[in-house]
Amino acid sequence: MNEATFHVSVLSPEMQLFSGTATAVLARGALGELAILKNHAPLITVLTKGTIRIQGGGKALPPTASDDRKAELDNERSAELGELSFELTSGFMMVCANRVTILKSS
């Protein structure tokens, strides 16, 4: 792992949508926009409707047999450009020890 990166996981009730490295995660919390970088202070927050952006995104998970993976396949192509995005209506984010876990409602 690059010295400026940290691990990110994005999970939905149905499946893991992303697991890889990032240089930044941008999301909308209950009190406004959040930017998470390496060595961020521990945090648990509610996420509100918006787009989660993962910059410097590492390798996305390989596609499954599910037909509703179009957004995830698009993100795999975006990973080559260095940014992934996920739309969400609500969720939670936990930041601890250079690991970010995002729980996304379906």
Q: Can you tell me about this structure?
A:
The structure is a single chain. Strand 3 (24-29) and strand 4 (32-36) form a beta hairpin. The chain has 1 helix and 7 strands. It is mostly beta strands and 106 residues long. The protein is 9% helix and 54% strand. Strands 2-1-7-6-5-3-4 form a 7-stranded mixed sheet. It has one helix at residues 70-79; strands spanning 6-11, 16-22, 24-29, 32-36, 43-55, 83-96, 99-104.
Strand fraction band? Answer: over 45%
Summarize the biggest pleated sheet.
7 strands, mixed
Helix amount, in percent? under 10%
Structural class: mainly beta
Number of helices: 1
Radius of gyration: 13 Å
CATH superfamily: F0F1 ATP synthase delta/epsilon subunit, N-terminal
What series of H and E elements makes up the topology?
EEEEEHEE
* CATH fold field value: ATP Synthase, domain 1
Low-confidence stretches: 61-68, 77-81
Estimate the mean pLDDT confidence. 82
CATH class label: Mainly Beta
Q: What would the principal axes of the Cα set say about the shape?
A: globular
Task: Please name the defining characteristics of this protein.
106 residues; mainly beta; ATP Synthase, domain 1; seven-stranded mixed sheet; 7 strands; globular
